[in-house]
Specification:
single chain, 159 residues, alpha/beta, five-stranded parallel sheet, 6 helices, globular, binds 4'-phosphopantetheine
Length: 159
């Protein structure tokens, strides 16, 4: 049977335990997951795309994942990777509008695309990279929100 590969795209600025929970659960469905870090989207990122990729690689060492950055349209990246499956995490209702728009836009561009939403574990419902950065910037302890390597990277950024 053909291996099923999905792409999990995002900014991951930085990766959190919420993202890792989505990755682990997506791997119960797909054989392989490509974590695709958006290089220069609309957002001003704290970490460079190389830093974000390296942090994810470090945090997902023993998982069936590949990590790389991409630029341009997600649909073009999916074509390059020869898959039509996209994974996204869904937290509160507030995520829905944005995610719905993106999924529909992608499907308009490439009708074969299927977006799979994984509901965030209740533990990470409130968690976002933005919150983590805000806490770290103000020297709060973020050990329960991000992997150890990311904790260190945040500390160095806000030293
Ligand atoms: O973690 P984020 O910032 O919510 O991820 C957003 C991301 C990277 C999935 C989205 O911005 C994206 O796919 N950007 C690539 C450009 C694109 O394809 N846009 C059309 C879909 S709206």
């Amino acid at each position: 049977m053909k291996e099923k590969t999905a792409v999990y795209p995002g900014s991951f600025d930085p990766i959190t335990h919420g993202h890792i929970d989505v990755i682990k659960r997506a791997l119960k469905i797909f054989d392989r997951l490509i974590i695709a870090v958006l290089e220069n989207g609309n957002k001003d990122c704290l970490f460079s795309s190389a830093e974000r990729v390296n942090m994810i690689k470090d945090a997902t060492k023993n998982m069936r994942v590949e990590v790389e950055s991409f630029s341009g349209l997600l649909v073009d990246y999916l074509r390059k990777k020869k898959t039509v499956f996209v994974v996204r995490g869904l937290r509160a209702v507030s995520d829905f509008d944005y995610e719905f728009q993106m999924a529909i836009a992608n499907k308009k561009l490439e009708p074969e695309i299927e977006t799979f939403f994984i509901l965030t574990d209740k533990e990470y419902f409130y968690l976002s990279s933005t919150t983590v950065k805000e806490l770290a910037r103000n020297k709060a302890n973020v050990s329960s929100f991000v992997p150890k390597n990311v904790q260190g990277a945040l500390k160095r950024k806000f030293m």
